[in-house]
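Exercise: predict the fold of this chain.
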Amino acid sequence: MTESAAAGRRFPVGLTAAAAIALLILLGLGTWQLQRLAWKRDLLQRIDALQHAPARPIGPVLAARSAGRDVDFTRVTVECPGLAAAPYLELYGLRDGQVGSRLISACAVDGGPYRTVLVDRGFVGDTVSARPPVDPDDRAPLTVTGVLRSPDPPSAFSPANRPERWFTRDADAMARALNAAAPAPVFLMAETPTNPEWKALVPAPVPADIPNRHLEYALTWYGLAAALAGVYAAMLLKRRKS
């Protein structure tokens, strides 16, 4: 056997290690997408059930949250005096491809250890410069029906919150900015309008159409893993025949 033939049949250790690492990454991504698929199916089932669930008084629900119960996507109702003219913070938001703000105000509650809940009153596009009036002396009662949502944790790419615009739902920091005591760790996403006369503020509690393409993504990653294994096997076979 010549030296060149022996070199051609030598096992490609480095290439094999690189292929194995790439294969593990692809398989891991596929498995992660399957896990996301199970999570998304459960989420969609909860949202579907939510569409027909009666609203519950918010106090007992928040008390259950303080005891460790999961209250995410629970429909509740609460009376918020003066909410239509309450001070608000502007949280960056997107709706139907439009950039805008979601107005966040505080509502007094009696929910176990919680004394306030932050209400997401709805979305207003950046093309609208006007805002609802603010009058701390206005205590007109307003009954709000909505859905409790736990805030998503900020990502490494989330911009820093600023007084004029917030980018993450930080309940404690927002409550301090609104002088609201003992905030609940969930947000009330209003389904009913807080300013019916002001049509630019649109309640937007839960997306109407949440895509679920995780099975497609999983099959893509597994397909790439199979293709990599096939290419590697073909390469080994060619080296053995050389």
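Check your answer against the key: The first strand starts at residue 56 and ends at 57.
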